[in-house]
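Structure first, sequence second, as always.
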């Protein structure tokens, strides 16, 4: 019997998990990015199609390798970004996503952070070979740094979990 307690997701998170919006890989996107770590389970790929004349995001899609909250947060992020200018989309925060979802369980707030981190990386990638606009900060924003910290934390925790599992397996062998 599992000692894990199921997380209490609100109905909107569950609905977007069952019926994600804008899910899938986009062919020939104008910008794309990844956030998260596949080794740890939560990872988001974001694809943007951008009107080059206006800088408006015409299409936003995602692929998620994660939990219900990750899928729901990524769905909301793409809905929020679609139709916005790159500058407006840049201002979307993990709190905006969490609020739209009716809050996320505290242990799942990183899902909104990863969604925003992937969106901002995609926007930065769009400007890699172009003149960056004045509104695009040169340094990582607090939300971007938070996404990087989440990625590093997940990698450290995964390595520790694997080490502990190996130690427990070795102890079990010695006891036999």
């Amino acid at each position: 019997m599992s000692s894990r307690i199921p997380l209490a997701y609100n109905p909107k998170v569950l609905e977007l998990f069952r019926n994600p919006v804008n899910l899938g890989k986009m062919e020939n996107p104008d910008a794309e990015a990844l956030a998260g770590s596949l080794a740890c389970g939560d990872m988001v790929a974001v694809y943007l199609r951008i009107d080059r004349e206006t800088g408006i995001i015409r299409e936003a899609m995602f692929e998620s390798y994660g939990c219900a909250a990750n899928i729901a947060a990524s769905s909301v992020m793409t809905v929020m970004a679609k139709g916005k200018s790159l500058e407006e989309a840049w201002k979307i925060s993990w709190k905006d996503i969490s609020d739209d979802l009716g809050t996320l369980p505290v242990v799942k707030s990183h899902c909104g952070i990863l969604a925003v981190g992937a969106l901002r990386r995609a926007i930065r990638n769009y400007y890699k070979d172009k003149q960056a606009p004045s509104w695009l900060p040169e340094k990582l924003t607090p939300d971007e740094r938070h996404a990087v910290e989440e990625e590093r934390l997940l990698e450290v925790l995964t390595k520790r979990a694997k080490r502990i599992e190996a130690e427990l397996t070795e102890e079990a062998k010695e006891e036999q």
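Margin note: The mean pLDDT is 88.
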